[in-house]
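# step 3/5: fold
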Amino acid sequence: MTLFAKGRPTVCTIDLAALCWNFRQVRERIGPGVKVLSVVKANAYGHGAVSVARALADAGSESFGVATLEEGIELRAGGVDAPILVLAGAYPEQLDEFIEHRLTPAICETETLRRLELEARRRGVTLSFHLKVDTGMGRIGLRAADVDSWLPELGPLKALRLEGIFSHFSHAESAEGNYTQGQLQAFRRVLKRLRSAGYDPPLVHVANSAAVIALPSAHFTMVRPGLMLYGAYPSPDMASQVTLKPVLTWKTRVLQLKKVPKGSSISYGRTFVTRRESLIATLPVGYADGYHRLLSNRGEVLIRGRRAPIVGRVCMDLTMADVTGASGVAQGDEVVLLGAQGQASISADEMARWAETISYEIFTSIGPRVPRRHYRSEGEEKKRG
């Protein structure tokens, strides 16, 4: 489906039917009784947070995860009413906004716990929170090994209510690996210690997308899928375990076609010089849109159902492709940067390899000046009807 914006034609189209398909794959793997917290941080991995969250809420997602208070407020302003967990920590001075917008903070260290408790008592309000435990990620969270030193901090709490406890895998792509299993065991020990002390939070979660797919023993009472919702696999071998549908297509149109003789240099720095008479297509997209500069002389695009190489350096606003081998190319033709065109496709993983990064960064780097157009694919609409 082609949904170009008026004017500059560089756009991302987001298939909400594919998104909901991927959500159903999560639901089928976890079974009944396990809740889903859909991770929509970083603008839903670049897919448009409000529209994505609304579609997932309609599909049955019980709650959502964001990174920052501001991302949570954006969802509330967009009409998302489900519980929202702010995953990347909280600050005591944000208490009023957490209360006003009914957001749940993740608390990862004792000083914030004490200060939020003090401020909540002073205001006469209550606030539910999730406790973040560091089982080996080495990022944020209370160290699992120190549970006996921080556990007494929960006793004096009156205004703060422990609703959930969670951790984060460092290498869940290797679900059976010793490190992942060690993290899971450490998390279970913390749970056992909490329960022996009289705490039994209803929401227990540690499974990200990789663990949703490959580690059923980590599902507990809630899971936190992110990447898989958007149709990308945490690791290539997981494609044999679950079928996901890509959600985002990034496309543009040919701005200019130019036939140049052999020996012509293309773009800054003369990093590409034609070896034959060539037809060069200039595309209205560049690194200011999130099309990585490392794709220079490495990446490919799809035009007329065929691959065409990126030539010369990717510029801030423009990129050049050699379309000599694609017959019949015309100004205004659709060009797919990421996604499918006919039988050909370019995945986020493939683009990530060219750019020496990961699919997460490919998605989240697509900038705000690229419009997102949300739709539901025709086949899914007929099925739904």
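# step 4/5: annotate
The chain has twelve helices and 21 strands.
# step 5/5: archive (pending)
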